[in-house]
UniProtKB/TrEMBL annotation:
Main location per the UniProt record: nucleus
Organism name: Sinocyclocheilus anshuiensis
Known function: Component of the Mediator complex, a coactivator involved in the regulated transcription of nearly all RNA polymerase II-dependent genes. Mediator functions as a bridge to convey information from gene-specific regulatory proteins to the basal RNA polymerase II transcription machinery. Mediator is recruited to promoters by direct interactions with regulatory proteins and serves as a scaffold for the assembly of a functional preinitiation complex with RNA polymerase II and the general transcription factors.
GO terms, molecular function: nuclear retinoic acid receptor binding; nuclear thyroid hormone receptor binding; nuclear vitamin D receptor binding; transcription coregulator activity
Family membership: Belongs to the Mediator complex subunit 1 family.
Organism lineage: Eukaryota, Metazoa, Chordata, Craniata, Vertebrata
Protein's UniProt name: Mediator of RNA polymerase II transcription subunit 1
Pfam families: Med1
Entry's Gene Ontology cellular component terms: mediator complex
Amino acid sequence: MTALLERLHGKHNSSRSWQETSKVVRQAMEKRGVINTAGHQLLLNCLETLQRALKVSSLPSMTDRLELGSHLSPSRTECYITSDMFYVEVHLDKAGKLVDVKVAHHGENPVSCPELIQHLRDKHFDEFSKHLKGLVNLYKLPGDNKLKTKMYLALQSLELDLTKMMHMFRIATNANTVETILHGSVGLLTARSGGHLVSLQCYVSPNDIFEEGTGDIDYYLLLYSAVPRTLGVSVSVTVEGTTSVYKLPIAPLITGSHPVDNKGTPSFSSVTNSNCVDLPACFFLKMNRLMPFSLSYIKKMGSTTGIPVLETVPTLSPLYDLIIKSQLHEEGEASPPALAQSMRFYTSLPGQQHCYFLNGDAPVQDGRSLQGAYVSKIPFRHPAQVPALLDIIRHQAAYNTLIGSCVKKTYIKEDTPGLLRFEVCPLTDSSFSVSFQHPVNESLVCVVMEVIDSRQVACKLYKGLSDALICTDDFITKVVQRCMSIPVTMRAIRRKAETIQADTPALSLIAETVEIMVKKNLPPTGSPGYMGMGTGPDGSNPSWALCHTWLPVDGNISQSCLATLLKKCVSSALEVLV
């Protein structure tokens, strides 16, 4: 160690110019490829950090940073990245400042790419490299250049049809950005740029739209500015080689510019040998991140296209396990915590603290739990199949959003006073129940939520006949469709129940009255007013006369019939109050 330090001091004391030092560092960086990465990973990381930190302020430093020294023009102001199917031009001035970036695909003229220009001007070389990687991946196709050109033409034709479908929808419906994402036939389309494929954004949850933490809606941004590609659920459109041969269009299939209905649905020309060719390839919708799908939805997508979604028999897992892992991954959790193993999660809300048990192992059909698998891409061969596929993706995304809303990294002690407990249990691949203790009575109540589609969730509250009404089904439906969150909905139900109790202090008196009337089996008609309730003009009790059609002809009524009748009356009265 002493000898090493002496050598370092000797090198430090020796006079060496900055240019010479810089040259030595660059030479070391150029040799980094031959270093044993297993034994020198730390050194490699340091060299990469140095490279990123070097200031790019001259023409040589810019060309060196782009690592395109062997592809320079004689004036050294133009850099080229070439391949058999595309090339990229980077134009610089003599001071090293960026002038233009152009991309040319096979047989096309070079076209300026604003996205690549912006990345290089901002010195985002990593992003620039990602675009180059995307261009290379675009042409990772089987066959010779002639066959690859046909596949690229097929992708171009598909992109033109999808773009036209989005514009026709927006013109027909006058939809804004958010409505286009949620309801559009192809969602919100972002054109292919550089190495980024065409993107279709098809689902955003309220949590995506609202600014996290403040609760203020960032609506203006979504309406009038460019929407980030990473927002919500989106798919990229591409073409990839397959073992089977499919007939793919190499020319746009949409005929005319007038839709066939008020939703902007276009009309397509028939598939013929003149506008389609047989290719060992297929179109794909590639998910922006792995997404859990139930087995029935995977089969439904396969039925829509006639092509199996998964090439091999999938390894199935309980769907709720997949949703939990996916949600924790989105929140930056590298590995599922211990809470995920117990399926218990905690949520802290204003004035309330919840504990959710996700009973994903509950049998749904054939004694098995709800099964599913991750899906990364979905094959198809015609632009008309895209709307149906996006609707299935949206439907599953809405279901996943609701279940995932219970999954948080928050931890609350089990013995925390006032901790409210809920059990979420799957019923079908599109419905589930949320069970909890009645806010007023010591009984169990249940809310069943049916995800009809990505835009509609039907809710039904089930309670005991003698339980006080908490809120109406319509109230729960409106809340859940607005927030797409189980914890927020449960909090709203609790607060609504507290409001009803505060506004109706006579509820306990009404319940006691029903019990007394059932026990005494009071006569239904012609009786004196009960508890001071007077008679009508004809001498009968108007309240009983209102229900006279429910009674037998002889006027006799059983205890059970009377109890049911009175409970219906009380329930109707409470619904009016709600």
